[in-house]
């Protein structure tokens, strides 16, 4: 499945709904396009999920098909699809600070966080030096406006949810995430030491999946966050994916449980972190 397949599936599902509305009205696709003043292929592109309809398209569609009572729901569905797959360049066009700030309301209202990472220590558990190294790399690689100091401070300030309110965190890391050097040996040693510290918090469960784990049934997957049972976020190379379909959230929740069964906790997890520190020399 491609990274944006769930978005495409949602567009196709909306297209099927629109096709049913058109057929119920007795109109052919060609007749609807003619009455709307569209190119005759536009209805087909929309119904097959190849073209996303605008708000105006949906209003016209519902009006001509005698289904004006469905207009608001159709528009809300389309907007949710459009917001699910957001390219980084769109989110970060004014710099990194705004992208960091955009998720604060979600983090503040979430009570149960589940996070899986195969390549980085997740944001709430990061040190300032680790954050700065990560965001500097993103800034330089994507040629973004330089608001690094402000973006770092937003992420550091956001970590207050670790210590305030009824927030619980279940974090799973592949052992490889402990070995990927971010910011040099000193920064990485500080980060791993901090990880040992935050793992002792009563509201944090930290599991590490050893490199020696048998991955026959479940191999490493894309990094993801589950916020309560309401939303999943996945960070892709090109975009930020938001998943709100209940059946897809359930798939990620089941995957998290499977990964959790592969992880070690407590003293064995601390031993893997300590070994990663020692490997820094």
UniProtKB/TrEMBL annotation:
<dbReference type="InterPro" id="IPR010982">
    <property type="entry name" value="Lambda_DNA-bd_dom_sf"/>
</dbReference>
<dbReference type="InterPro" id="IPR043917">
    <property type="entry name" value="DUF5753"/>
</dbReference>
<feature type="domain" description="HTH cro/C1-type">
    <location>
        <begin position="18"/>
        <end position="74"/>
    </location>
</feature>
<dbReference type="Pfam" id="PF19054">
    <property type="entry name" value="DUF5753"/>
</dbReference>
<protein>
    <submittedName>
        <fullName>Helix-turn-helix transcriptional regulator</fullName>
    </submittedName>
</protein>
<dbReference type="Pfam" id="PF13560">
    <property type="entry name" value="HTH_31"/>
</dbReference>
<dbReference type="InterPro" id="IPR001387">
    <property type="entry name" value="Cro/C1-type_HTH"/>
</dbReference>
């Amino acid at each position: 499945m491609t990274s944006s397949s769930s978005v495409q599936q949602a567009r196709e599902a909306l297209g099927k709904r629109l096709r049913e509305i058109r057929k119920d009205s007795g109109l052919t696709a060609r007749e609807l396009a003619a009455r709307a003043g569209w190119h005759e292929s536009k209805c087909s592109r929309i119904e097959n999920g190849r073209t996303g309809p605008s708000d105006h398209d949906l209003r016209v569609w519902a009006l001509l098909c005698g289904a004006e009572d469905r207009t608001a729901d159709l528009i809300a569905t389309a907007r949710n699809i459009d917001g699910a797959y957001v390219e980084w360049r769109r989110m970060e066009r004014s710099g990194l600070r705004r992208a960091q700030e955009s998720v604060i309301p979600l983090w503040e209202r979430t009570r149960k966080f589940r996070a899986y990472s195969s390549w980085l220590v997740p944001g709430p558990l990061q040190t300032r030096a680790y954050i700065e190294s990560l965001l500097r790399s993103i800034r330089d690689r994507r040629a973004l406006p330089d608001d690094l100091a402000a973006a770092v401070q937003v992420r550091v300030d956001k970590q207050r949810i670790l210590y305030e309110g009824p927030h619980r965190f279940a974090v799973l890391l592949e052992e490889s995430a402990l070995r990927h050097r971010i910011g040099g040996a000193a920064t990485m040693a500080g980060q791993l030491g901090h990880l040992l510290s935050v793992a002792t918090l009563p509201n944090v469960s930290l599991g590490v999946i050893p490199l020696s784990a048998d991955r026959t049934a479940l191999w490493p997957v894309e990094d993801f966050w589950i916020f309560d049972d309401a939303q999943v976020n996945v960070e892709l190379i090109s975009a930020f994916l938001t998943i709100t379909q209940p059946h897809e959230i359930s798939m990620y929740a089941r995957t998290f449980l499977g990964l959790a069964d592969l992880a070690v906790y407590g003293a064995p997890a601390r031993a893997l972190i300590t070994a990663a520190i020692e490997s820094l020399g």
